[in-house]
Each structure stands twice: as C-alpha cells, then as structure tokens.
Sequence to fold (149 residues):
Amino acid sequence: MTYSPSKIFMMGSQSQGMKRQRIRKKETKRILNELKEKIGVELKGELERVEIDNRAVLLLNNEPLILEYDNRFYLTVYGVMKLKPERGRVVVDEGALNFIINGADVMKPGIVEADESIAEGDFCYVVVEKKFTPLAVGIALVNGKEMRG
Fold:
C-alpha cells in the first residue's frame, strides 16, 4: 500500500488558483453510489468539486469528505474520521506511526491487520492499533490477505 502526500494532498508553493464547481445531480448520484459499493457507507447530499493546483477534493454538503485521484473517488482522511467506513481498513503497529505521517509507504512488517476484501489497486485507509485514528489513505499494492506482516 502506498500513500503519497505530494500526489494527493500537499499544495505546491506556487498556487495556480482554486476552481470550485457544482457537480450535476446525475454525476453526484453516480459518485455516491460508487462509494457506497466500495466502502459500505451511504452518502447523501450535494457535491462540489474544488480543484487546487490540479488536485481535486469533493465537498459533500460543504465538507471535504471525498478525494478524486486518477478519475476514481475515495474518502479523505477527514472523511474516514467522520464516516468510519466498514471496508478498506489497514491497521499498523505504533512503531509505524511517525513514518506514515511523514509520508512513508506502509510496509508489510508494520501491518498487524488488514481487511481481507481489499484488492490490489483499491483505495484503503490506515489506522494505528489500539487508537484506530485514521492516519492516511492510499492505494493497495497487494490484496488484503497478503498485507499482514
């Protein structure tokens, strides 16, 4: 699994400006249904797409809950904290905490538990054991069964 803050969240020092655009109802319904299938959370409301330096976050009812990456959608870390999805969780030991929050990839030896329904290429989220506070979201490089160290 990998997490790259420079590709998903970090804004460059030379900002090109911000674009904000309301998403049509039909497209909103498609995106929210896609998320429901992937993560098991039913979402309702209006979506707006905010683009900053060619990175997109979708606001659901004015909250930054969804990110867009390579024309795919997943929850932001804030979205994971707020919605607590049923699927896609990867639990790491406390020793991995500082590495992950500083942008390191999640390595197999640090993983103590992973949702077995995660497939290679799926979005997933990372929490620390005992606390279960979300640290990062990323894309799985292997399936959930292979993740555990």
Remarks:
- The first helix runs from residue 5 to 8.
- Confidence is low (pLDDT under 50) at residues 1-14.
